[in-house]
Amino acid sequence: MKILRKIGLFLFAAAFFYAGITHFLYDHGFARMLPAWVPLKLEIVYITGITEWLLSLLLLFPQTRRAAGIATAAFLVIVLPANIYAAINGVPAPWSEEASQTALWIRPLFQPLLIWWVLVVSKDSKPT
């Protein structure tokens, strides 16, 4: 694996793991990002946080890296509607009480870059 790809892999995995931690630190803020009709909001927030932990760890192992990369890309597509909902409805970041409309739209617009990133860094699943 090329050194830049490996660095990118570890940066992505660390950031994704930290994102999972934030689901527990700011659980009610993440729950606000879901429409009123969605049941079990906190449970969904906790499940997505745990999922981020598991996927980030699976990205680190060559044997599971490719599958974890694809699963992470799919996960990012699945959670995209919550980010779009938050942007449309002015729901601030989970750790904040206010945000500009521009800041709210950065997150969903950044999602395709994250998907591309994880697919690129998880492509090589050969042991190093």
- Provide a count of the helices: 5
- How large, in whole angstroms, is the Cα Rg? 15 Å
The average pLDDT value, as a whole number, equals 92
What string gives the helices and strands in order?
A: HHHHH
The largest sheet is: none
Secondary-structure class: mainly alpha
Query: Unreliable segments (pLDDT under 50, ≥5 consecutive)?
Result: none
Which geometry do the CA atoms define? globular
Task: Give the distance, in angstroms, between the N- and C-terminal Cα atoms.
Answer: 7 Å
Q: Can you count the beta strands?
A: 0
The overall number of domains is: 1
Strand content: under 5%
Oligomer state equals: single chain
Describe the structure.
Helix 1 (3-25) runs antiparallel to helix 3, helix 1 packs across helix 5 and helix 4 runs antiparallel to helix 5. The longest helix has 28 residues, at 62-89. The mean pLDDT is 92. This protein has 5 helices and no strands. 20% of the residues are buried. The chain is mostly helical. It is globular. It has one domain (3-121).
